[in-house]
């Protein structure tokens, strides 16, 4: 095997922040943060989702509020639709 061509393969502590679950496994992920786990210091890598919190693996479905999503969209992009409602009412 040639030297200095492979990334550093080390134990890394992954943290699913949604489920508050820690996974210790070997990885080439690079991170500057460290955290102590079971009395030993490991490189720390936070995750938004993993098999511990993903609906496919947990069997739980999360329903989002459609009304809230539409209102949020209109709030962000409603001004791009051309004339505002007040201008349209005034023109009539």
What does the secondary structure layout of this molecule look like, with pairings?
Blueprint: E1 10-16, E2 21-27, E3 34-37, E4 40-47, H1 55-58, H2 66-77, H3 85-91
Parallel strand pairs: 1-4
Antiparallel strand pairs: 1-2, 3-4
What does this structure look like?
There is one protein chain. With 92 residues, this protein is an alpha+beta fold. It is 25% helix and 28% strand. The protein has helices at residues 55-58, 66-77, 85-91, and strands at residues 10-16, 21-27, 34-37, 40-47. A 4-stranded mixed sheet has the order 2-1-4-3, with no helix packed on it. Strand 1 and strand 2 (21-27) form a beta hairpin. The relative contact order is 0.15. The mean pLDDT is 80. One of its GO terms (cellular component) is ribosome. Belongs to the bacterial ribosomal protein bL31 family. Type B subfamily. It comes from Psychrobacter pocilloporae. It holds the Pfam family Ribosomal_L31. Keywords: Ribonucleoprotein, Ribosomal protein.
């Amino acid at each position: 095997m040639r030297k200095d061509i492979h990334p550093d393969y080390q134990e890394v502590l992954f943290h699913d922040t949604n489920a508050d679950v820690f996974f210790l496994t070997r990885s080439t992920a690079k991170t500057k943060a460290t955290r102590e786990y079971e009395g030993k210091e490991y490189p720390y890598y936070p995750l938004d989702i993993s098999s511990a919190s993903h609906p496919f693996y947990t069997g739980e479905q999360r329903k989002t509020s459609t009304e809230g999503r539409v209102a949020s969209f209109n709030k962000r992009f409603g001004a791009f639709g051309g004339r505002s409602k007040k201008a349209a009412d005034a023109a009539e």
